[in-house]
Amino acid sequence: MTEAVIVLILLASILVVVIIRHTRGKDYVPEKPKVPYEPLTLAEAQGLYADGELTTRAGYLHYNLSEAYEVDDRDLGVFTGYVKPDAQHDGVLIVYDSNGKLRGQVTGQKDYYASLLNHRRASCYGIESKIDNDYQGEVCMQNIN
User: Fold this and answer.
1) Which residues contact 57 (CB under 8 A, 6 or more apart)?
2) Starting at the edge strand that comes first in sequence, how are the strands of the sheet with 93-97 ordered?
C-alpha cells in the first residue's frame, strides 16, 4: 500500500513539473474581442443626419462614396446596410443597403480592406443623393480594427 502511495506521489510530482515547464515563459495574451455585426436601425441613422451633414457615430469611420450607384428615387436618402470587400479589386469596399441593393463603393482603403477580409462584412449607414443626374453619397462604416 505504501508503495502505491509513493508511486502516486511521484507521478503527481512529475505531472506538476511538466505543466510548469510547459507554461513557463508564455505571456498571457487576452483574446481580442470580436467585432459583432450590429446594424443600426433606419431611425437611428436618420437621427445622425441633420442639416445636410452626416454625423459619425462613435466606433465608425466616415468616407465619401468614390462612386455612388444609381438607385430608384424612392431609395435616395439615409440608408443602413453593410460593407464588404470587393474580391476582384484590392482596396475597394462595396456598400450595400439593408435590402442587399448596391449603393456604391469606396476606393483606396487598403488597411480597412485587409481588416474586413477577416470579418467579411461590417455595419454601415449613409446618405445617397442625386444632383443633376449625378449620384453622390457618404457612408460611415463600423471600425473593425
Assistant:
1) 40, 48, 125, 140
2) 60-64, 134-142, 122-131, 77-85, 93-97, 102-106, 67-68
Grid cell, residue 76, equals 435616395
Contacts of 80 (CB under 8 A, 6+ apart): 39, 40, 41, 42, 44, 45, 97, 98, 123, 124, 125
**pTM score of the predicted model:** 0.69
Which 8-state DSSP code applies to residue 75? G
Model pLDDT for residues 75-128, shown as the tens digit of each residue: 888 999 999 988 888 888 999 988 889 999 998 887 878 888 877 888 899 999
Ramachandran quadrant class, 100 (left: phi over 0; alpha: psi -120 to 50; beta: rest): left
pLDDT per residue as tens digits for the range 53-67: 888 888 888 999 988
Neighbouring C-beta atoms of residue 50, cutoff 10 Å:
9
Is-contact 143 59, C-beta < 8 A? yes
Distance (Å, whole) CA 145 – CA 71: 31
All three cell numbers of 17, joined, read: 513539473
For residue 34, what are the contacts with CB-CB under 8 A and spacing of at least 6?
none
